[in-house]
Amino acid sequence: MEKFEGEDLKTAIEVDPEVEMLERIKSLESDRLELHPKIKKLLLEGLAQKYTMEIGGKSPHEYCTDLLKKDKELDDDVKDIIYRMGPSKTPINREIHDFIFVLPNDIGFEGKSFTREEIYERAKQLNLDLCPPETGPEFGLLDKGIGQHIDIGMEPIIDSEGIPRIFNVSHDSSRVYTRKATDPKLHPAWGWLFELRKKVETKEG
Q1: Of 8, 46, 96, 154, which has the highest C-beta tally within 10 A?
Q2: Is the dihedral of CA 111, 117, 122, 127 positive or negative?
Q3: Are 139 and 145 in contact (CB under 8 A)?
Q4: 95, 126, 24, 133 alpha-carbon torsion, rounded to 10°
Q5: How confident is the model over 140-186, as pLDDT tens digits?
Q6: What is the CB-side half-sphere exposure of residue 113 using CA atoms within 13 A?
Q7: How many Å apart are CA 26 and CA 6, to the nearest integer?
Q8: Other Cβ atoms within 10 Å of 16 Cβ, number
Q9: Residue 71: how many CA atoms within 13 Å on its side-chain side?
Q10: How far is 25 from 39, CA to CA, in rounded Å?
Q11: For residues 127 and 50, what is the distance between their CA atoms, to the nearest angstrom?
């Protein structure tokens, strides 16, 4: 990976609550991000993690080749979905994106199952956007997982059998998989990845 930054905010804050809290607050006052107060609070409390990384700039073939080199094998449904991302959906150049990993339990689904549409709507309310499709393969190329199972909040891609699918990434090896986007009820303890919304630039005058 060309650039990857993950923060365990809870650990940092526990080391020195006063100084580290001020530093975290300052780091979250980003000129490019539109952070909802709820999301900022979760980040400061260590209940969510922010990841900044470069993605894109690769063809579906390159993603599949790189994932095969890392994991030695790649499920057919994963290859199917990667190739169906299409060159028109993948940026020509690598671009920096800011992502957030959250647990449904912490954003309004405490102990309750939910649908994909419901968590997407909740994410929208919290100024979170859907991830580009290549986010799944990019996280699959990490050397190791982040310690949590990740479902990628993304527009589903229709596979060769007409089934809409999204990417997910294992908690330990960061191996990438897919699952049906039509699952009727999802578990509140499974983590999700969304993109932090960028501020809209306004031209003066």
Answers
A1: 154
A2: positive
A3: no
A4: -20
A5: 988 776 778 889 999 999 999 999 999 999 877 778 889 888 877 77
A6: 5
A7: 16
A8: 11
A9: 25
A10: 12
A11: 14
What tokens does 93 get?
């150049």
Residue linked to tokens 């999204």: 166
Crossing angle of the two packed helices 37-44 and 17-28, in degrees rounded to 10:
140
Q: For residue 30, which of 2, 5, 57, 3 has the smallest C-alpha distance?
A: 5
Q: How far apart are the first and last CA of the chain?
A: 40
Comparing 150 with 11, the larger pLDDT belongs to: 150
d(CA 42, CA 48): 5
Q: What does the pLDDT read at residue 179?
A: 85
Considering 37-41, 93-97, 182-186, 200-204, the range whose residues carry the highest mean pLDDT is: 37-41
- 5 vs 30: CA distance, rounded Å: 15
Q: Which residues contact 134 (CB under 8 A, 6 or more apart)?
A: 55, 56, 58, 63, 85, 89, 90, 91
Residue 115 has pLDDT above 50, yes or no: yes
Q: What is the pTM of this model?
A: 0.81
Written as one letter, the residue type at 197 is R
